[in-house]
Amino acid sequence: MKKITLVYFSPTKTTETVLRAITQGLAQSMEISGAEITAVNVTSPKIRGTILAPFDDNDIVLLGAPVYGGRLPADASDFFKKLAASNTPAILIVVYGNREYEDALLELKDVASACGFIPVSGAAFIGEHSFASAQIPIAMNRPDENDLKQAEDFGKKSGYLLKKTKDLKKISALEVPGKFPYKEGIGQGAPDFIKVTELCTSCGICADACPAEAIDAEKGFAAIAAECIRCCACIKACPEQARQMKDGPIKDTARWLNETCSTPKPVQTFFAAEP
Ligand SMILES: Cc1cc2nc3c(=O)[nH]c(=O)nc-3n(C[C@H](O)[C@H](O)[C@H](O)COP(=O)(O)O)c2cc1C
Ligand code: SF4
Ligand code: SF4
Questions:
Q1: What is the pLDDT of residue 82?
Q2: Closest C-alpha residue for ligand 2 atom 3
Q3: pLDDT for residue 239
Q4: Which residues approach ligand 2 with their CB closer than 6 A?
Q5: SS3 122
Q6: How many domains does the chain have?
């Protein structure tokens, strides 16, 4: 019996939503029941501190991450690099905020291949931009219904390809866009870009949502600039809308994205050719 494992980094949950829709289609086409599906959410620093058991040819693994500056977020790629696989098919997904995904899918393919996975399909989906807000919308509410339908179809097609392929080692190498050497990553550290208003009730939800353990209750739930990865999970998770972007470079970037990236981009999918 085949097992499906989803391994994803997803601070604002758009990547997770896409992976779950893909899994639905994949499980359906491969007749795999819910009991054989495991999700490993590596957004949590505690989970990133663990080591997963090696995968083998009974596993199908979905690897998913958002695009940060045209690359994978370092926290995601550092975790993915620790995975070990042997003859395990992998389905690779990046989710980006309607600007570009540049080298992120290629980087994910290279990382997966180095771990021993055999990439069988890959896709770039669109998610609401982390920097977006009601005042400065960018790709709002994506993935939408149409994106999720395409995610399910992509999962189904990936499943049919796997079912048809007798010997995975003979499948052609998956080709995805991107260039090597990859573009330079966005690096660590961030300007102090979040303000906490008097609406804060000290509930701690933002601190729990933070993938970088960068929020300090002692400091009034402010973000520690040096550790913050700018993911905006805390802003989106706050039930009181007490966290807001300050004026500054990140808010300026959000305004620029709002002006220049308003035309919705299509989902892109890629498949390895069967032998
Ligand atoms: C630091 C940072 C850098 C980003 N860089 C890009 C980018 O290069 N291109 C793009 O289209 N979106 C970019 N985004 C937007 C995210 O890729 C997008 O919102 C994605 O849906 C977030 O995934 P998540 O919901 O799983 O966290 C960036 C977001 C952050 C926080
Ligand atoms: S989630 Fe919002 S209300 Fe709760 S502690 Fe954080 S800033 Fe305050
Ligand atoms: S403090 Fe920074 S890293 Fe933590 S959730 Fe907020 S934006 Fe993300």
A1: 97
A2: 200
A3: 98
A4: 196, 200-206, 221, 238, 240, 242-243
A5: strand
A6: 2
